[in-house]
Write a structure and sequence with these properties.
single chain, mainly alpha, 68% helix, elongated
């Protein structure tokens, strides 16, 4: 039962934190439909709960990117595969926007920068292969792509862009710009 309760608590935190970044463990317990004491038994502090949610998100992001086989095909196609994998599930990661308390976790930062390094290597390959402009700094393209993933998730959630259109639109604007 505790594995089921633990997952319910993690799912509740992921659902609640993007719209209520200061949500208490009691509020998370209500959304998870478990007793507050269960939350405190499984997570001794809010920070421990946030850490578990954040590391779980990075695990899912890593698995999704790994499944995209980014070492295969042109860089633009690999970036599209990443967008197609991450944009539809972006709502699961919006809680990472809750603020500095999440990003103070060394384990999260280390994992995030390893992911950024993988994206950087993909972009560098695209530059070498002539698929991406060599005059644009790689770090800027990584940041732009990462930010566009967040933006796409927000646009979907707000009803400004259709879930199925967002990955293609993201890549079109990233690789070709918005000019005619």
């Amino acid at each position: 039962m505790s594995d089921k309760s633990r997952q319910a608590i993690l799912d509740a935190a992921v659902a609640l934190l993007p719209t209520n970044s200061g949500a208490s463990m009691a509020e998370i317990a209500v959304v998870a439909d478990v007793a507050r004491t269960t939350v405190h038994r499984l997570f001794t502090s809010r920070e421990e709960l946030l850490a578990a949610v954040a590391i779980g998100a990075i695990d899912r992001i890593d698995a999704a990117v790994l499944a995209c086989q980014i070492d295969q095909g042109p860089a633009g196609e690999a970036l599209l595969r990443i967008a197609e994998a991450l944009v539809p599930i972006g709502h699961e990661f919006r809680f990472l926007e809750v603020g500095p308390q999440v990003w103070k976790l060394d384990a999260l930062n280390d994992r995030w920068y390893r992911l950024a390094d993988r994206l950087g290597a993909l972009i560098e390959r695209g530059k070498r292969d002539g698929d991406l402009r060599p005059d644009i700094p790689t770090a800027w393209l990584v940041d732009l792509f990462s930010s566009a993933l967040w933006c796409a998730a927000d646009s979907i959630d707000e009803g400004r862009v259709a879930r199925n259109d967002a990955p293609r639109l993201l890549i079109e604007v990233l690789l070709r710009g918005a000019s005619t």
